[in-house]
Structures are given as C-alpha cells and as structure tokens.
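note to self — DONT lose this again. spent like an hour looking for the file last time. sequence + predicted structure for the chain T wanted, 763 res
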Amino acid sequence: MRLYFICFSLFINAIFYAQKDQDYINYVNPLIGSNSSHELSRGNTYPAIALPWGMNFWTPQTGNMGDGWIYTHKNSGIVGIRQTHQPSPWINDYGAFSIMASKGKLNLLENDRKVTYKNVIVKPHHYKVELIDSGITIEIAPTRSSAHFRLSSDNMKNVNIIVDAFFKGSSIEINPQKNIIYGIAKNNSGGVPANFSNYFVIEFKDSFDRLGTWNGKGQVFKNKQLTGNHVGAYVSYNSFIGDNIEFRVSSSFISHEQALINLNREIPSIQSFETTKANAKKIWNNELSKVKVTPNKKIDKNTAHNDMVKFYSCFYRTILFPRSIHEYDAGGNQIHYSPYNGKVLNGPLYTDNGFWDTFRAVFPFYNLLYPEKMSEIIQGIMVNPYKESGWLPEWSSPGHRDCMIGSNSASIIAEAYLKGADGFDIDTAYKAIIKNTNNEGPLGSVGRMGFKEYNSLGYIPYDTKVNESVARTLEYAYNDYCIYKLAERLDRPTNEIEIFKLRSNNYKNVFDSTVNFMRGKSKKGNFENRFKPDKWGGVFTEGSSWHYTWSVLHDIQGLINLMGGKSNFIEKMDSIFSTPPTSDFSYYGFKIHEILEMELINMGQYAHGNQPIQHVLYLYNYAGQPWKTQEKVRYVMDNLYGSNEDGYCGDEDNGQTSAWFLFSSMGFYPVAPVTGQYVIGSPLFEKVEIQLPNNKKIVINSKENNTKSVYIDKVFINDKQYYNNWLSHSNLLEGLKIDFIMNETPNFEWGSKQESVPFSVSN
C-alpha cells in the first residue's frame, strides 16, 4: 500500500512538473509575419532574437543597410546578424551594426558577403543558421542588452569575423591585447540629438591571428582604428584549435565603459553559450506561462497545434515592445541616455511605440498581467520624456517621431492609473496631459494639432490646414473622456472635470445622420460635398468613414442613438461585411497596402489589417446581438491569423494586432480600455489559465468548444449563471472561474437584453 502511494505521488508530481516546466517557447514562431514587402504587409515583422522588453534585439539581415525591411522571408541571402532597435519598417532603425562570418577571402561589403543558408533554428532565445558557402554555423543567444555568439564548422581554418558599424557616422577600434573590438554606430532615422551614439563592444576568448579595418568603399587598412561615414573591422583565425569560436557582444547608449558593465553583468566571461541560451529560454517561459492555454480536444491535431503557435507567437510579439533603453550603472542604479535632450539621467526610459496602435489592446493586456511593470513603463515612456522634452510622446523611436495622429498618451496614462498602476509621477503626467489639450507641439504627432478649432467648435473643420480632421476629432473625444475619468479620480476642480466631460461628446459634431456616417465638416458647419464613405485618407487616417464611424469607444449607445436606434445600427454594422471592398484612393494616388489587405481578406469594408476598425466586431454586443460578434470574431481568429510567414493580414504594429488575438482567443476584448470592461466574444481554447500578479487566477473553461461550436449558449461565473455580455476588470482581478457553454447554433437570448450590454456614456 505504501509503495502504491509513493508511486501514485510520483506520478502526480511528474504530471505537475511537466505542466509547470512546459516549454511554451517551443510554440513561438518568430518568422510569422516576415514574408512582407513595401507593397503588401503580411505583418511587417522580423525574427527578433531578444528578451521581453529588451534593450537590444538581434535578427538575420537580408536587406540592405538602411532598408526598413531588415529581414524578408522570401529573400534567400543573409548579409549578417544585426543588432537592431527597429519597431517598424516605416519608422526604420537606429544604432544598428552587424556581425558576419566567412572563410578565406574577406568579403566586407554587403553585396559581397551575402550568402545563402540552411538548417535554420529560429526561437526568441536562440538563432542558429548554417552559411552554405563556408559551412560555418552561427548561433546567437540574447540577454537584455548583450548577446552570446558561437561559430562552429567542420573545418575552423581561415575564419573571418566581419563587423559592420554601418553608415551615417561610425568608428571602430581593435584592441588585440584585450581581444576586444570597440565600435560606435551613429546611424538613426530621426528623433535623436546630435550626440546620439550606440557604443558597442565585442569581446573574444581567443587572440586574433589577423586584424584590420575597412571603409564603405571596401578599402582595407592595417591600422587598428578608423572613423568615417561608414567603417568596419575584421579579425581572423588562421587555424583555430577547438570546435567553436565564442564571443560576447554588448552595447550602450551611454559609453563603452557602460557597455562593458552591461556585458559583464549579463554574460560573465566564464559563462558558456549553453548557459546564456538556457537563461534566455527560462525568462521567456516564465512570461509565456502566465497564460496557459489548452487546445480543444475535439479538433484535429494540426489545427490545435497551429492555434497554440498563433497564441504564443502573438504573446511573444506583444511583450517585445515598448523597448527598455535604460541601463544599470556599476551600483545597479537605473540610468539612461535621453534621446530628448542628449543627457545621461537617472530613472527608466522606454521607447519604440506608437500609441495610435497600442492603446487599444497592448497596454490593456499589460494592465491585466503586468500592473507593476506598467508603472515603470508609464514613468519611462511618458513622464520622463515629458520632463526631458516638454511633450508627451505619441510615437517614440527613440525620441519623438512625426508619425500618426491623436493624443492617445492620455488614454494610456488614465487607463493605467484607474486600473491600479499608480507607481509613477501622476501629478506630472496629468500636467502633461492638460498641456497637450491646449497646445500644438513642435511636431504634428505631439500636442494636439487643431486644438484651437476643436476646443472652440467641438470639432476640427476639414477646410483648415489640419489634415485627417475627423479622425483627430474622434480620437480627441475618446481621450477627453479618459481625461474626464482621470480628473474625477484625482479630485480635480469641478469646472475642469466638466470641460472634458462635455468634450467627450464632440464625436457627435462630425456625425451626419442623413447618411449615418462620420463626415468632414466645414468651419461654417456644413458637411463636405461629394461624400464617399469608401474614400481613404483626407479627413481620416489610413482608413475611410466605413472604419472611423465606429470610433466612439466610450459611447457606443450614443452612436446607436445617432443612427436612429438598434435596428438601424445593426443594419449599418451588417452592411460593413456585405458592401464590396471598394475604395477611393485618390488622396494617396495609389492603393496603399492597407487597402490591398482589405480587399484580400474578402470581408467587405472590414479591414482587420489596420487598427481603427479592429474593435468593431465586438459592437454587436452593445446592440443586443452578441452571437454575431461570436461568429465574426472566431472567423477572424481562424482565417486571418496564421502560424507561418504569411501569418498576419496587415501590419503587426508593436503588438497591437497580436494583442487583439490574445484577448479574443481568451474570450473577451477591451473595446474602451479606460472603462474597465471587456466585451465577451468567442473563446478559442478549451481552457485558459491566467496567472494574475496578485497570485490569483482566472480560469476559463469552454469544454464543448470546437471549430463549429463558436456560439455561446450559457455562461457561468464561479458556478453562477451569468447574463451580461461583458466582464469587469475589477472582478477579473479577484480571480474567477468562467465556464462558457458553447454550441453550434446561436442562443438569441443570452446577452441580448439592454441590461446585459457593456457600459456607454449614454446608457
């Protein structure tokens, strides 16, 4: 009996630890979305070999130096392994340099060193590739700001390691006594002061047999130091004794001395490559295991596996950005180079994010799983940049970039604070928000362009110099609602609160009830002539009125009222998907890739490849027809997301398109993040376990789930039947057991009553 008990206990423990130590990272495919081009995005991603929120990423480089498309899967040649900080091909890179290996002849310039490859392993914690021409295998394992390289081959004779410090100003120095290469890469795409530099160090275990420097014309020099517009270095081993060559790489935006501190802290000289790789794997598994999903047993194994790959690959993408670019001095104190004023200052700094995209789902995901981290992120991506530049960022990379519209920093700050992330300087943050509402910034992307007209008229007229006027009006209105709720929480003066409460209704001023669309309005109050709802651009941003009409996140009931009631609203919603995907692209002069993507997905005027309409599938809940949300959300998850290189139907955009999938597959989505409510959709998995930071869990069961049972029949929360078609953030934080009873046919009763719908200002 005692033996039986011991065996049984060992069996149970084996199961437990198998679950506990499951390698979720094995489901991550960093190549998803990498088969992209300027003309057509399938994600516009690159395989980022990095840690979550890492300072430096690494990727195989297939494109040319300066090309925003660093890596494209269809490109068959690699020119190097590149340290990159690129958040988007449209924003491009900064502080980049690359490392490559060869045998025999020194092929220094990109066109000369481009080689084909095979036997590739691509995981967030490990990249491995064999270069066909030389037989050299290159491996890399990342840390936060450093990386461990390993080169191996059947024949380790005449091996060259080529370092390219890139153009726009660079410097190289080789110290053979210390086996170190010191480099400076000054390349950037804007948003930095004149003193911006990425200081990198490469430290080898073994002495060099040959060394030299080279310039962008391919000229080779025997001197150990070179500075110019484009320079590089090489070191060579005539006959290396051993199976592999290892070296460690790190960088700093502060100094070479700080780069060495980063290196020795993260990868001690005695540490093996395998240890660095194992450490990175552990970090990733720790994060990915915070949401454990179990695929449906009633679907085929291939589909189940692909669902797991899609989920954890989206998880990986969601927690890559924003990038942390602060460093830790010898005493362990946070310090950072400021791309806003060129000084080295104390505290955290985060960058590489466009809030027009990520306020919708990325930051809500962090507020659910990472509230403590959110405090640091808000301090580092909002408050400190404001202190250093006088403005809240809207697109930072690494400093202010003139890209996209809106004033969405307000919504992110408000949501974080209202959901409990209060470990940042809220007084300064609020001051910065208010400044934004009453000023235009030095760039179009900071402050509020058109604030005078918006504040006085309640909208931005189309016949001003301010473009994308309707889109700005709608986004400002939602952000004003966010400010209103934040001002209430901070107990601001009543008159101040009322200003933003009233302005949150400004969306009504650009709604034309004669056509039931948002529409440009003149200074005199007349709607624009020759209105075409499928006209992209102009008064809208990367979309048309079909997409922006629904951008009333905080007051969907108000929009329902403007359209004349639920039946009209539903009819209008249905028409999104029944109207052919036509487009007037005269504003651009050609079909931008977002238009092509809308056409390709074949869902009418619905354009999931771009952010303004990604929430619209959930709006049926507000009008009492949640089964339509369930049907369409599941369709998008099944058909518009994939597990291969073509895996996105548009730009992934720093985690936003991925975070949409994460929320949707769990069964709910934050349509209006600041309200603290999530609208219920159709859960994808049989079981989801969400580990909350307060040590409580959300357990979501959908036992009858399969590819056909996309509809919710009943919902139970903590074993009590639940009728609302939304969930609250505060209740989720308490830890919940949610049981979805799924069916192949809709339940027209569940969640359909007025008292069951999510919050709207007009409810």
